[in-house]
Design brief:
The complex is a heterodimer of chains A (about 200) and B (about 625).
Chain A (H helix, E strand, L loop, with lengths): L17 H26 L10 H4 L2 H26 L3 H31 L8 H32 L8 H27 L9
Helix pairs in contact in A: 1-5, 1-6, 3-4, 3-6, 4-5, 5-6
Chain B lengths: L25 H4 L3 H30 L9 H36 L7 H20 L17 H4 L4 H29 L12 H33 L12 H35 L6 H14 L15 H29 L8 H24 L1 H7 L3 H31 L5 H27 L16 H28 L41 H6 E3 L6 E3 L26 H18 L1 H20 L8
Antiparallel strand pairs in B: 1-2
Helix pairs in contact in B: 2-3, 2-4, 2-15, 3-4, 3-6, 3-8, 3-13, 4-6, 4-17, 6-7, 6-17, 7-8, 7-9, 8-10, 8-11, 8-13, 9-10, 10-11, 11-13, 11-14, 13-14, 14-15, 17-18
The chains are: A mainly alpha (about 200), B mainly alpha (about 625).
Chain lengths: ~200, ~625
């Protein structure tokens, strides 16, 4: 993340730090990115001409658990920010690590799920479901991975005392990104897993 | 140099920080928005020349029936690269050059909000452009048009369209980063007293463009990934055999592509709105109308994309709706035209070279705008679609409106940027040659289109009777080339002059970028001006005489600006040079080659990118003083 480490040093026109404005602008751009990906998925929902179909391979309890893990990471992220603001860098690092671990667990779960689906015969090119499913959830997985890298970066920079001020500002910025990625997953999980997909021909 | 007068010290980073702000290598590490602006401009003009040579090849091939200069495959590559180059590697970066150089000066800021991100945008753009052009040596350039319609683009056996997808993804990253940066700069970095409605129209148009980019680029990003995945990993996004729908690509592309049209033209509107008042010696007529119509264009611009797809079979309801919205967007555009005419009306018009270009831009844009309205009428569009009429239309808009305004802007701000003036006489010759050449090139293409000459065709038989106007068009194209050559001569000759202006305010300008030295010092303003009004500089120079109502010069000293003396400007903390943006940007084309050739290269690219970003993150933006 560009200038996350830069403190809000000079006065700004709006009074808000420029980095925060930039992060919101970037996230609004990300909304359109995921909007286009989700639209594609919805457009092609139930239009696969061959199997495997979603209802044959989804393990909804399994994905629900990994979704819960990801959502829980938002809580630890908030706790990390709160520790930073209270001037407790030790505990901040602990919560940041916990957030990163929860994120990694989610990504690991996704890798496992992808492998399983692949073994059951669903690949990128099998059908429209495979194409849109892997690309949409894959993009989200990459976003979580980037978030994990940022979290680990924060932890290591805090370790060598290279964060500006009490470190709460960069933690807040990474937090904005992290919560955004979590919220997007709620939408993706609902659209892909929870809303039943009709078979072609209305079965 | 971190701080003016700062001393060098060792950084806690892994490698020593580059500190030089002069010399050849300093250009690679600079984070100064003015230097980056100049680099954007020089690179964009270089790509303009390359794209221009491609245009000449196209015109040579089409000059006569059954042309043999290029074969069909070469022609496809050349016309595709012409479009990509002119849009993504010339007009967009040229606009970025003006925005980068001028926005901080016009709003009274010391730099953009994120100087290193700015450098990253520039390097990502250059490397993305070089990546695209490397395709010529690696199996063929993109050959499916700048619009890359599927399934032609997904099934083409040549590697070109993969380069297209990856190259545009890289330049898209550059543009997104630049858009966030400049948007935040306008919102958050204005001088005291500089409310948004006291910023010049150019700054407003800049802000609208950045928002268009922020919201439009992610859509094409997704489309390009889908295209790339279809080509590289056999996904089915646009594969009809598996139930995919190629029309989805058209929606993705034009949902980006139409806002993109305004990304190309609004910077020109901004430049025109700066030049006309200065040389009419009147304030811009209806400033707020111009601003609000610019914003309206930005919003409506997202609701007209399907007028590019009238012939795709979307059905009468969709076609009607998009026809109506397209007619509506002509209204705020027309408003601007009247504002510009109102500005000139009863003005004390000075026909300088920048003014000639600005007037030329307005006139050419009106022609393009009117032919655009004919496309909004669906039955009429059925006749015009995929013919040279459309080619004529968008060249009148983007070349006639955009490029003329850019040249006007170059003449106008050249003294500010280089402290030298471009020759007026040569400039007038260049303008008239370009105006005549341009109209000879693209005027006849209306006729060709209505006579049924289809677009993108590499040749045509003699029996169609299209030879004469095609020849005229080719002659015109070479006149344009001659005028560009004359501009280059003019530019080179200007550097033979000694540096320094006899008059620091050569045009009697209105806006605050002229209140500082030319070229501006690294910190832009010795003291950030306190802004009281729109056209602040003008109001400092002139007051209205209470009895006669005429403008008279303000009392001496009121317009004094560089009054701080040699000590001024010290202790201003400027961001220090950094090579991490270049390192991070270098990761992107390596990633691109990795996608095409090998997982190992992909990994290497990711590593370079990561190293760049981490080096960047742990390096303070301003080197600490020793």
């Amino acid at each position: 993340m560009a200038d996350v480490a830069a403190p809000a040093e000079h006065e700004t026109t709006t009074g808000l730090p420029s980095t925060k404005l930039a992060m919101w602008l970037f996230l609004s751009s990300e909304c359109l990115l995921f909007g286009a990906l989700i639209s594609t998925y919805v457009l092609y929902r139930g239009r696969s001409e061959v199997g495997p179909y979603p209802d044959e391979i989804f393990d909804i309890p399994y994905t629900s658990v990994s979704s819960f893990v990801l959502l829980a990471s938002s809580l630890t992220m908030v706790l990390a920010l709160s520790s930073a603001q209270r001037g407790d860098p030790g505990r901040m690092r602990l919560w940041l690590l916990a957030t990163a671990m929860l994120g990694l667990t989610f990504v690991g779960g996704q890798v496992y799920e992808f492998t399983l689906f692949h073994e059951e015969g669903l690949t990128l090119s099998t059908n429209l479901f495979g194409t849109t499913f892997f690309v949409l959830t894959g993009f989200h997985g990459v976003h979580v991975t980037v978030g994990v890298l940022m979290l680990l970066g924060l932890v290591s920079m805090s370790w060598v005392d290279r964060l500006p001020g009490d470190g709460s500002f960069p933690v807040e910025m990474v937090g904005l990104y992290w919560h955004f990625v979590d919220i997007v997953w709620i939408v993706i999980f609902t659209v892909i897993y929870l809303i039943p997909t009709p078979r072609p021909g209305g079965a | 140099m971190a701080t003016i007068g700062a001393t060098r010290r060792t950084e806690p980073g892994a490698v020593r920080r580059p500190m030089a702000t002069t010399g050849f290598w300093s250009w690679f590490t600079t984070v100064d928005h003015k230097k980056i602006g100049i680099m954007y401009g020089v690179t964009a003009i270089a790509f303009f020349l390359i794209g221009g040579i491609e245009a000449l090849l196209i015109r040579l091939q089409l000059a006569q029936p059954d042309g043999t200069v290029l074969n069909a495959n070469q022609y496809d590559q050349i016309f595709t690269m012409h479009g990509i180059t002119m849009i993504f590697l010339f007009v967009m970066p040229m606009a970025a050059a003006f925005f980068n150089y001028l926005i901080p000066l016009m709003i009274g800021a010391r730099d953009v909000a994120f100087p290193r991100l700015n450098a990253f945008s520039y390097w990502a753009f250059v490397l993305g452009g070089l990546f695209l052009y490397s395709s010529f040596f690696l199996g063929g350039a993109p050959n499916g048009g700048w619009f890359g319609y599927a399934p032609n683009s997904t099934t083409d056996p040549q590697i070109g369209m993969s380069f297209y997808a990856l190259g545009l993804l890289i330049t898209g990253i550059a543009s997104t980063a630049g858009a966030v940066n400049l948007g935040v700069t306008v919102i958050n970095m204005r001088a005291p007293g500089m409310s948004l409605f006291r910023t010049p129209v150019f700054v407003w148009m800049g802000l609208v463009v950045q928002f268009l980019l922020v919201f439009a680029l992610p859509i094409i990003t997704v489309g390009l990934f889908q295209l790339l995945f279809d080509r590289r990993w056999g996904t089915n996004f646009f594969n009809v055999d598996a139930g995919g729908d190629p029309i989805l690509w058209q929606h993705m592309f034009w949902l980006f592509g139409h806002p993109e049209v305004y990304v190309l033209i609004l910077p020109a509107f901004g430049i025109i709105s700066e030049i006309l008042p200065v040389f009419s010696r009147k304030p811009l007529f209806g400033y707020q109308f111009v601003v609000f119509s610019g914003i309206a264009i930005g919003f409506i611009g997202f609701g007209v994309w399907a007028h590019h797809m009238f012939a795709a079979g979307l059905g009468p309801v969709a076609n009607t709706a998009f026809g109506v919205s397209t007619a509506i967007i002509a209204v705020p555009t027309g408003v601007k035209i009247f504002n510009w005419m109102g500005t000139m009306y009863k003005g004390d018009i000075h026909f300088t070279v920048p003014m000639l270009h600005a007037i030329g831009a307005v006139m050419m844009f009106v022609v393009g705008g009117l032919s655009g309205v004919t496309h909004a009428i669906v039955p009429s569009d059925y006749q015009q679609t995929d013919t040279y009429y459309v080619v004529a239309h968008f060249h009148y808009v983007i070349f006639g409106g955009g490029v003329f305004a850019f040249f006007g802007g170059l003449y106008y701000w050249w003294p500010k940027i280089f402290a030298r003036r471009l020759g007026e006489g040569v400039g007038k010759l260049q303008f008239w040659l370009m105006a005549i050449g341009f109209n000879l090139t693209f005027g006849p293409q209306h006729i060709l289109g209505l006579d049924g000459m289809i677009r993108r065709t590499f040749t045509y038989p003699e029996s169609l009777g299209l030879g004469f106007w095609n020849l005229v068009s080719t002659v015109g194209a070479f006149l344009i080339a001659l005028s560009v050559l004359i501009f280059l001569v003019n530019a080179i000759r200007s550097f033979r002059q000694p540096k320094g202006l006899a008059n620091e305010d050569p045009w009697d300008a209105r806006t605050i970028e002229w209140m500082t030295a030319s070229p501006p010092p690294a910190h832009n303003f010795d003291e950030i001006p306190q802004v009281h009004a729109l056209d602040e500089f003008w109001h400092r120079k002139y007051v209205e005489d209470e009895r006669t109502g005429r403008l008279v010069p303000a009392q001496a000293g009121a317009a004094d600006h560089t009054d701080e003396g040699p000590g001024a400007g010290h202790a201003i903390h400027l961001p220090s040079p950094s090579f991490w943006p270049l390192v991070a940007a270098a990761g992107l084309p390596i990633l691109g080659y990795g996608v095409l050739y090998s997982w190992w290269v992909l990994g290497a690219g990711a590593l370079v990118l990561l190293v760049g970003v981490f080096g960047w993150a742990i390096e303070p933006s301003v080197a600490e003083e020793g």
